[in-house]
Amino acid sequence: MTGTPHSRHANAFHAQANDALQDATLKKALRNATDLFAERRSAAIDAVPDWEALRDHARKVKDATVARLDHYIEQFADNAEKAGATVHWARDAKEACAIVTKLAEDRGAKRLVKSKSMATEEIHLNKALAERAREPVETDLGEWIIQLAGETPSHIIVPAIHMTRDAIGQLFVDKLGIPPSNEPKTLAAHARKRLRDHFAKADLGISGVNFGVAETGSILILENEGNVRMTTSMPKVHVAVMGIERVIPRFADLEVFLRLLPRSGTGQHLTTYQSILTGTDNQAKSAMGQGPEEMHIVLLDNGRSKIAVDEKMRETLACIRCGACLNACPVYQTIGGHAYGSVYPGPIGAILTPQLAGMHEAKPLPFASTLCGACKDVCPVKIDIPSLLLELRQRAVEGDGKQAPAKRGFFELLTWRMWSWFMRNPTRYRFATALARLGQRLPLLQKTMPPMAAWHSTRELPKLAKKSFRDTYRKAKKESNG
Amino acid sequence: MSDARKAILAALRQEPTTHVPPLPEVMTSAGGPTVPLDDRIRTLTEILAKLGAPVDVAADMTAVSTRIREVLAEHGATSLALSDAPLVQDAAKELPDSIEQFAHDADREQLLRSNAGLSTAQCAIAETGTLVLVAKDERHRLATLLPDLHIALVPASRLVATLGDGFAQLASDGTSPDSPTITFVTGPSRTADIELELVVGVHGPKALHVVIVMDA
Known about the structure:
Chain A is of the alpha/beta class and 482 residues long. In chain A, 52% of the residues lie in helices and 9% in strands. Among the domains of chain A are: 48-305, Rossmann fold (3-Layer(aba) Sandwich), CATH 3.40.50; 413-481, no CATH class. In chain A, the strands form 2 sheets. Chain A has a 6-stranded parallel beta sheet with strand order 1-10-7-4-2-3, sandwiched between helices. In chain A, strands 8-5-6-9 form a 4-stranded mixed beta sheet. In chain B, the strands form 3 sheets. A 6-stranded parallel beta sheet of chain B has the order 1-12-7-4-2-3. Strand 9 (273-277) of chain A pairs antiparallel with strand 9 (181-185) of chain B.
């Protein structure tokens, strides 16, 4: 099992990826999971005749929304308040954490429950609350497991994808003192029982938001387990943390997004539950337990407004967090989520993290891709992730005024200069390829001469043809003329 | 206006957007060709069968009560949490005394202890096998969530064909959902968080049973 990468330092990426590559159990688990999801996804979308039209439409809605995000987010906030919710605005992670902590402290709320939310992972909310002795209990089964294990999620949809049933069984024995079992059904039953106690006593529930509807101030949350319904109905106070780009204009727009998201994420035609929450129930106090008395929505910027006004990168904000690009990505399939060392892993993480956290935090990520385009093919809102990766690579290398240029190594520069010099002239090109043909007859040289030696330790060089196309062509032409 | 709100809105307006793509018309499956009731029932039944949730059709209230009794017995349930819907109250009257009943405003501990919950649904969507629970119209938020078994009575007149038809019903004026909580329920609670193996009933009900009521 790989260690949890608490270090978010950029240089850690290669070491973490390397650790993951050595971990046979992890590789097998990832392969099984990503293959299964990919299979289910294609079966689910094959059953939808107008899939492409849905994708195109959803993208148009998102583009129109992100281009006027100021308008839609303000409309959302106003309507949510009209419906009885209290809206808070947070410029960054620190402000968001302070808002939630204060809400809990002012109400004397000590027992907190939480449903899965990437936005709260992004701002490290649990850590902030734990510092005030108010750490929430994670209630999504996968999130609870990794909380017990002291780890972080490795997948957007299946947070404990990296853990085997045996490891989880052992964890439950150690932490909960249950009799040993590695049966998912038994383990889930223990979780149900334990977490019900937490739900029954909780005085504040924290959730994320999948979609916020501007015209009504509603939020929609998708789930399968029922813990979101519990978190948003049993405690007296509900706090929802929402990235400002989660907003969509109209209530009726939800239909298209509900058709796209579950199919892309898990291959379900719909998740088991959708909770659509619009302000508070004014009878909550009289009719016992039918809903929270207070609803708070924390609108989180944390770098999003910067992306929204960046015309080249703006489409990043169209993402609906389905996780399909993770499952489709050959890099994610091989190294898993933790190696990325960022909250958002996989292709979407590779474009999102450098923009949210800054390139200095995540410089290797845009380069951790083969640009094969599998992510773009499966994305339900057709985000052109490979192009965005290229743009970020260019910014990482050249800087764009916002991000400092990378320091290029002497050898890297020398290599590219030489490459360019050989490629610009036919004679020099011929000379270089002749040299390469000669070189490949000397395997010992390849295996010992740096930097070829490092590359060669796990791979074979592709074989060059004995004769170049140029030579073959010339010879054939000569013969046919002759 | 808070400082943060001002700052975020100002940041979003910082650079004038050169190209604002138009917002497309809503794309919806609402108002499609009329689907006969029999077909709607068949679709709902097929979809929910795949998720392990049986669907029965009951001709009248007597049949409904009989079916509830049988389903409770199948699950060995001896207590039942009720919503405040008139249909639920009517059906509950016919149940034997051996079934302990809790009203919607019962103590939460009692709701947590109930083996089963009984509610109606404000709408059901055939295409997706979905029950739509509108909290404004019925106090059923916890009775449909806490017990191990959820029995839902669906008046046949409220069974619509498509997801879009469902949304259209929710927002009769075309925009507002007009209820603090609306819950879509498609099958029993489930998880695949441990090695992607399906486990039914992790936090919400372990079983869902739907009874379509023809004369309601």
